[in-house]
Inverse folding.
């Protein structure tokens, strides 16, 4: 007798395991199973309001059944600190990616430094952010001369421009 995991099955949650015998007569069946995986998940220590920036005091690690969260969870509070809640999160709830948005590193109207660099050169200039952006997002910046330039938010008021 042998077992196998049929193609397309997940390694957790509801799945089917194939069981077959080749002798003396050949047969096979599929057995429905529930595979549970326990692990650390970041949980809200108290209610978190929509729009609130997440701090260390808002979070704790608890062991949870991770199969209950198909879109994933966070296993380290450092992955979340500084992000903003996109909805109200009750105390004791596992925090999930769809409940949070990245922390803004550039805010509309903020004075920023535009940086362009290449092989052997680096040029920087000042400008005003035309919108909000998290790290890695595109943001438009108005230069002192009135020109609008788009770049990638890098944090700490820096926008990197690529040519």
């Amino acid at each position: 007798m042998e077992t196998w995991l049929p193609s397309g099955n997940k390694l957790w949650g509801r799945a089917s395991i194939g069981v077959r015998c080749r002798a003396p007569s050949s047969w096979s069946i599929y057995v429905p199973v529930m595979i549970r995986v326990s692990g650390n998940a970041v949980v809200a220590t108290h209610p978190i309001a929509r729009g609130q920036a997440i701090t260390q005091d808002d979070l704790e690690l608890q062991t949870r059944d991770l199969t209950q969260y198909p879109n994933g969870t966070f296993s380290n509070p450092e992955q979340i600190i500084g992000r903003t809640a996109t909805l109200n999160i009750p105390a004791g709830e596992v925090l999930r990616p769809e409940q949070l948005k990245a922390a803004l590193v550039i805010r509309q109207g903020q004075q920023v430094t535009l940086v362009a660099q290449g092989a052997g050169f680096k040029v920087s200039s000042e400008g005003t952010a035309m919108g909000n952006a998290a790290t890695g997002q595109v943001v438009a910046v108005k230069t002192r001369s009135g020109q609008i330039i788009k770049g990638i938010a890098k944090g700490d008021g820096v926008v990197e421009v690529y040519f």
Observations:
- The mean pLDDT is 92.
- The chain has three domains: 2-35, 38-101, 104-161.
- The longest strand covers residues 13-21.
- Residues 27 and 37 are 31 Å apart (CA to CA).
